[in-house]
Design brief:
By secondary structure, the protein is an alpha+beta fold. The protein has one domain. Helices cover about 10% and strands about 25% of the residues. The chain is built from 1 helix and 5 strands, in the order βββββα. It has a 3-stranded antiparallel β-sheet with strand order 1-4-5. The chain is elongated and about 55 Å long. Bound molecules: zinc ion. Zinc ion binds next to loops.
């Protein structure tokens, strides 16, 4: 089910957005250099590495550039519905 969006910053844009798909790549870093020491499949994380549990998408307003959770845009649209 989809919900309408309204940008909470510019307060006018309801139509132009970027839906940014989040693709989590689990990595193990070298603690000194920050370089990637190892990458994993999500299913094969070691015991101390939590699975990604962030949102699947972020939204950027195509009018003012605000980058927020999808919920921020749908909640604002609910408060200010199109008549
Ligand atoms: Zn905006």
């Amino acid at each position: 089910m989809s919900s309408p969006y309204l940008c909470p910053k510019c307060k006018t844009n309801r139509t132009r957005f970027h839906q940014i798909k989040q693709e989590a790549q689990p990595v193990k870093l070298d603690p000194k250099s920050g370089e990637i020491a190892e990458t994993y499949e999500e299913a094969h994380l070691d015991a101390f590495h939590l699975n990604y549990n962030g949102p699947e998408i972020r939204i950027q307003c195509g009018a003012c550039g605000l980058n927020e959770s999808e919920q921020a845009f749908t909640a604002y649209a609910k408060n200010s519905p199109l008549s």
